[in-house]
Amino acid sequence: MLLRVLLVALSLQLCASTDTITPSSPLRAEIDPSMVPMEPFRSSKAGILHLPPGKTVAWSTNISVPVSLNKTNSTSCQLLDSGNLVLTADNGKTLLWQSFDHLTDTFLPGMTLGLDKRTGLNRYLTSWRSKDDPRSGKYTFQVDPKGSPQFFLYHGSDLIWRTGPWVGQKWSGVPDMTHAYIFNYSFVSNANEVSVTYNLLSDSIITIFSVDGLTGTVQRQTWHENTKHWTKFWSAPKELCDQYGECGPFWYKPKSPRDWYLRDGSAGCVRKENRSMCRNGEGFLKLASVKLPDTSKAVVNKSSTLKQCEQECLKNCSCVGYTSADDSGGGSGCISLYGQLMDTRMYPSGGQDVYFRADAVELERQEEAERSLWTKDAEESDASSELPFFTRSEIAAATDNFSMANKLGEGGFGSVYKGRMENGQEIAVKKLAPNSGQGIQEFKNEVRLIAKLQHRNLVKMLGCCIRGDEKMLIYEFMPNKSLDYFIFNEENKLSLDWNKRFDIIMGIARGMLYLHQDSRLRIIHRDMKASNVLLDKDMVPKISDFGMARIFGNEQVQVNTTRVVGTYGYMAPEYALEGLMSVKSDVFSFGVLLLEIITGRKNSGFYHDNPSINLVGHVWELWKEGKSSEIVDPSLKDADIEELLICIQTGLLCVQECADDRPTMSAVVFMLNNKVELPSPNQPAFIHKGRQQDADPSSSSAVS
Q1: Would you say 376 is a known binding-site residue?
Q2: Domain 276-358: which topology?
Q3: The overall pTM is greater than 0.90
Q4: Per CATH, domain 365-476 is 1.10.10.10
């Protein structure tokens, strides 16, 4: 009988204006079946709840586990806006039953997933038996409340994947967890319950978390209204190393070298023999970006400091390692690890620092290796006498272990993070991706160049960090991001009046003049564009990203290269097509950037009057027709017209097709600073689209 009531109630949302039924106001069975949001299931006894987009099933009665209730008077059944179906008595005062306590395969906002220790109610997800059969499938996702609580994905009784423990703002085993702008998680672990819930930060977002019985994964999907489709936002497990215990226990040497030779690491690793690690000079080795081992046997002390955690672990010979219980805000609390170190791994980014117990011999060997590594890298960098080296632990502490909250963005060679050093100085850390195009040579190039460059309009490098294949550059922090953030955004550009834009233009020009002429070295930047111009707190422009820069000899005028690097749309024709680079190549890029600042448009944009030409061609056509006023960004008001016209003409002189016709940067600075009559420019290069657009016009590329 109850299932019939639920079925009617679930159908009610589309069939009537009310969301509540009572014994005195029932719905009859004569409801038009075409109005009921049901799918043809193998069992006709299943009641389901649809989300509006795409009629996605969000909940169904679990016909594998029927529900029975005692009869009572004054009952009513109501479907809440949250999707929770509640059965109440005494005019809504007494809750008899709710669907949010009987989860199926989907975890909706507002639901609670986990264990209520007081009542014994365990809310967990269960996959469907098949795509069209809502009976219980073989996959479950549920909490393990022991030790430091975590959630497990099971296939029957077999462990498939685990989240790792909650470490303040995310799960240890979900390093790519990003939710700051979509939803907020709330995790509770106390004497009464171990549970997690989440809520959306915007009513316009529709997202669900579910267990997929077909793929054997947990996944989050978001609804895209424009395409009317669900998009997979995240899923796990993704790769072989995500599988629980795939590589066995973690330690210092393979348990079975023969199996490892045969590419079978499932037996894992063990401690080295005849090594005492009990009050015999042992200590701890730190590994960064680690997924915490299975914490079912761990001990948690939320009030302990990390130093106290180390001391307590050192006293207990059974303690094999420790880490922070809360990895946010510099770390707090303590998780002490015991037993086998099962299901751990290292991530390219994310994860957290874990300190593993090591004997005195291993500690000495590690310290010697680190000293040798730093000495070798410092000698090779050719900049050790001029630029400080930071340790990885210093940078990890400054960036909150490279947390997503501190991530500023991604460039062609990796990610950039904001950080704060112990002395309070704010920094920007450029962390090169392991598989980035910038190898050790480009890295050393950038370090060597910037270490020797000092100018108000060049970004200041504070130091670098090298640890094995991991390479990082540490710069002064630019709070106002990059120039493209302002000039290509309709709202942000309003904060840049003409005076500010002109100051930015002049700053960039002076910085490039320093590179080409006034510094100890003669440098061609090769990737001058809006995203490589950073802005400090006073909106002073700073040229950045010297990974592609090239040093010229004092007598060199032009060089031919077989490796063309830079960004399509900003490359000079002789460089893009023939590999010929000179200071005039940079001048061309500056000219494109100058016209972008004036117009507030990208060179790669489309123009309704002639969609086949780019920004440079668009400006050229208007300038020839004497329509310079139509070139200027409409948001610029009360601008100095004469100054604007000089800038437009200077920009066109810089993008002329023939390199010899372009002015030097010293001439550019003179023209911008003095209201003098300028020569007429010749036709620019690349005014039509398609001649230089074999790659994304906003991304840096290298062609060997």
Answers
A1: no
A2: Hepatocyte Growth Factor (3.50.4)
A3: no
A4: no
